[in-house]
Amino acid sequence: MTDPTPSEAKAASTSIGDLLGEVSRDISTLMRQEVVLAKAELKESATKSAKGAGLMGAAGYGALMAVFFLSVALWWALGTLMGGGWSGVVVAVLWALIALILFLVGRSQIKQVKGIPQTVDTLKEIPETLKRNEENR
């Protein structure tokens, strides 16, 4: 007869209650780690979303300015039929270009938001891990 290994000796001397307590602590630790991971991923997603939303807001302001200056330029151009009205058109076109650039940059920032993919992946693994442990009994 061979001597039991240290893990076999520990298993033989440990009660079911102790084993269940250990499993419970491990699951509790796992869940706390998942919450920490989710918080970190949500913070990163929120930061990217805020940047994108800010740029989209700036694009909206730029579009508003373009409409305003185009309206003033059209009014002035029609009123005078030459001269000062075209300076309003130049300003409006510049604002339209700025709005377009801000919009494109903001849209690319928002497309980079991925949510909490790592947390979702690891949470999907928990039921499968528990099933494997049940099958080994």
Strand and helix layout:
Layout: H1 6-13, H2 16-80, H3 85-111, H4 117-135
Provide the descriptors you would attach to this structure in a database record:
4 helices, 87% helix, mainly alpha, rod-shaped, 137 residues, 0% strand
Summarize the structure.
With 137 residues, this protein is an all-alpha fold. The chain has helices at residues 6-13, 16-80, 85-111, 117-135.
Structural class of the helices, strands and pairings?
A: mainly alpha
Helix share of residues?
over 70%
Mean pLDDT, rounded to whole units?
A: 81
Beta-strand share of residues: under 5%
In total, the number of strands is 0
Separation of the first and last Cα atoms:
25 Å
Spatial shape: rod-shaped
Radius of gyration computed on alpha carbons: 31 Å
Please mark out the parts with pLDDT under 50 across 5 or more consecutive residues, or reply none.
none
What can be said about the biggest beta sheet?
none
Counted by DSSP, the helix tally is 4
| Pattern of helices and strands | HHHH
Walk me through the structure.
By secondary structure, this protein is mainly alpha-helical. 87% of the residues lie in helices and 0% in strands. The protein is built from four helices and no strands. Helix 2 runs antiparallel to helix 3 and helix 2 packs antiparallel against helix 4. The protein starts with 5 loop residues before the first helix and ends with a helix. The model has no long low-confidence stretch (mean pLDDT 81).
